[in-house]
């Protein structure tokens, strides 16, 4: 609302404000509890659906990269051989329970792992 | 959960992969995320605290029942937190009022259906007079209850009576624009209509209220 309120608008606003201020303590308390419940809900609110699938996609990409690297005929990368086959480490990494837990917590990390795996495969192929 | 797992994961890494960088990423982010989450919770708390009492009065004026009004406001708060709590705070106000009015309409619809169903039951009308099994006990008669009468000033009662006579959309426009002080764009977003419609509804509401309240005020 701008400053050019008519008398009616001003009186209506003041009257309404007064009725809000006159709310009893019990109502205020119940509103406060309702607010706390809503805030708690924010803390437990689920992440968007795509985020819950992101780690799965990242791990799938890492596994595909690892499998491609291991399939006969695709050629083994000299650098990968030299370093002991890092993509296989990735398979081990995600195959262990504790890392699967971590997976759901740190999506960016697994995105990065997948990118590294692809980079590793491409870079040496 | 993060630190031990990060460490154990880091231990396994070697070769061309820069696991150190990943570990640094993991070490740094959770704390930052926690800060952001806390800040967001506090911002939402402040916002809801600033609108809850006014929202309650708006709902109470619309449904004429304090318990129903409280349910509506609580539902609106929860819905905002669940569905839009992570949206930018500038969007909260119109979203909140939009949810609030949806709740008000739902409540009024349910009450209307309930009243219609009971009206088809002549026996229940007699029971109404008899006592404890009164099916109308919780159905509002449209009049302010005693505590409400005590709370509201005479001027407020007159305003409420005048607003009840307005068409729903005019009442919403008047409430949001005048009583809540929202601008035309915010009101349009809250009502889910164009700014032109808001201006029209508001103009008509003002004219009607002016005519009705001229004598009383």
What labels describe this entry?
heterodimer, A: 125 residues, mainly alpha, 2 domains, elongated, B: 217 residues, Arc Repressor Mutant, subunit A, 77% helix
Describe the model.
With 125 residues, chain A is mainly alpha-helical. Chain A folds into two domains: 7-44, no CATH class; 49-124. Helices cover 79% and strands 0% of the residues of chain A. Chain A is built from seven helices and no strands. Chain A is elongated and about 85 Å long. Mean pLDDT of chain A is 68; it is low at 93-105. Chain B has 217 residues and is mainly α. Chain B folds into two domains: 20-135; 152-217, Orthogonal Bundle (Arc Repressor Mutant, subunit A). In chain B, 77% of the residues lie in helices and 0% in strands. In chain B, helix 3 (66-84) packs across helix 4 and helix 4 packs across helix 9 (184-191). Chain B starts with a helix and ends with a helix. Chains A and B meet through helix 1, helix 2, helix 5, helix 6 and helix 7 of A and helix 1, helix 2, helix 3, helix 7 and helix 8 of B.
Query: What fraction of residues of chain B sit in β-strands?
Result: under 5%
Oligomer: heterodimer
Low-confidence stretches of chain A: 93-105
Continuous helix count of chain B: 10
How do the strands and helices of this protein lay out in sequence?
The complex is a heterodimer of chains A (125) and B (217).
Chain A: H1 7-21, H2 25-44, H3 49-70, H4 78-82, H5 86-95, H6 97-105, H7 107-124
Chain B: H1 2-11, H2 19-63, H3 66-84, H4 92-119, H5 122-130, H6 146-151, H7 154-164, H8 168-179, H9 184-191, H10 195-213
